[in-house]
Design goal:
The structure holds two protein chains of two kinds. By secondary structure, chain A is an all-beta fold. Chain A has no helices and eleven strands. In chain A, the strands form two sheets. In chain A, strands 2, 4, 5, 6, 9, 10 and 11 form a seven-stranded mixed beta sheet that branches. A four-stranded antiparallel beta sheet of chain A has the order 1-3-8-7, with no helix packed on it. In chain A, β5 and β6 form a beta hairpin. Chain B has no helices and eleven strands. In chain B, strands 2, 4, 5, 6, 9, 10 and 11 form a seven-stranded mixed beta sheet that branches. Chain B has a four-stranded antiparallel beta sheet with strand order 1-3-8-7, with no helix packed on it. The chains are: A mainly beta, B mainly beta. The interface between A and B is medium-sized, with 24 and 21 residues.
């Protein structure tokens, strides 16, 4: 199975400041056509997870443009350009290249 | 779009339970569907998936549940099911019904809690 490793596991950010979460995979997620099979999800407190970014860098519908995904192969980053209070929650990366799908441990983001 | 899970509850170790997921607002039959679970205070774990008709309704499972859980779907009822047998305490979790688009988990249900305890 592909192992997904996130860092940091927790983050405390001042509103308006940027934030960055790293995700590394044990195998390359780059596939034919240049697509990276890496998604980002946010689970807000008390809610189901929601898709933020798919294929490494594509924002899902309705996701604010302050969220961006980058990276290729085994190293990926989720960036929030200016954190807002509503961004609190746990962020997960997930690989979509192989079955079983595997998630990172999660990064808990707190807004000061 | 709505995914509504039901069937969760308290069951003894070794027991069985069947979860259901009722889908609406999208063309269920064309989507790959899966179950993802989350143990209390823990992260997300992919349980298994059902491909759509065009892909032969193939089912795949996580090693932790293979041989004990069976995933099925009824496209005529827009429903997904998870039959769980030989339940273990470590199966205690919220189980989410999830639909997939372009390999990403786009739609999630609200989840149903399964507690395995004596």
């Amino acid at each position: 199975d592909i192992v997904m490793t996130q860092s940091p596991l927790s983050l405390s950010v001042t509103p308006g400041e940027p934030a960055s979460i790293s995700c590394r995979s044990s195998q390359s997620l780059l596939y034919i056509g240049g697509n990276n099979y890496l998604d980002w999800y946010l689970q807000k407190p008390g809610q189901s997870p929601q898709l933020l970014i798919y294929m490494g860098s594509n924002r899902a519908s309705g996701v604010p443009d302050r969220f961006s995904g980058s990276g290729s192969g085994t190293d990926f980053t989720l960036k929030i350009s200016r954190v807002e209070a509503e961004d609190v929650g746990v962020y997960y990366c997930m690989q979509g290249l192989q079955t079983p799908r595997t998630f990172g441990q999660g990064t808990k983001v707190e807004v000061k | 779009v709505q995914l509504v899970e039901s069937g969760g509850g308290l069951v003894k170790p070794g027991g069985s339970l069947t979860l259901s997921c009722a889908a609406s607002g999208f063309t269920f039959s064309t989507y790959w569907m899966s179950w993802v679970r989350q143990a209390p205070g823990k992260g997300l774990e992919w349980v298994g998936r059902s491909r759509n008709k065009a892909n032969g309704y193939i089912t795949e499972y996580a090693a932790s549940v293979k041989g004990r859980f069976t995933l099925s779907r009824d496209d005529s009822k827009n429903s997904l099911y998870l039959q769980m047998t030989s339940l273990k305490t470590e199966d205690t979790a919220v189980y989410y019904c999830v639909s997939w688009v372009q390999g990403a988990a786009l739609y999630w249900g609200q989840g149903t809690l399964v507690t395995v305890s004596s």
